Amino acid sequence: MAQTVQTIFQEFIQKKVQIFKDRNALTSHFTPDTIPHRNEQMNAIASILAPALKGGRPSNIFIYGLTGTGKTLLSKYVGQELERMSNQGTNPVKVLYINCKMRKVADTEYRLVAELARMLGQEVPMTGLPTEQVYQTFFRTLDSNDWVVIIILDEIDALVERMSDSFLYNFTRINQELKKAKVSIIGITNNLHFIDILDPRVKSSLGEEEILFPPYNALELQDILKQRVELGLVPGILSEEVIPKCAALAAQEHGDARRALDLLRVACEIAERQNDEKITEKHVDLALHKIDYDRVIESVKSLPKQTKLVLWSIINLVEKEQE
Ligand SMILES: Nc1ncnc2c1ncn2[C@@H]1O[C@H](COP(=O)(O)OP(=O)(O)OP(=O)(O)O)[C@@H](O)[C@H]1O
Ligand SMILES: [Mg+2]
Question: Rounded to the nearest 10 degrees, how much is the dihedral formed by the CA atoms of 315, 317, 322, 323?
Answer without folding.
Answer: 120
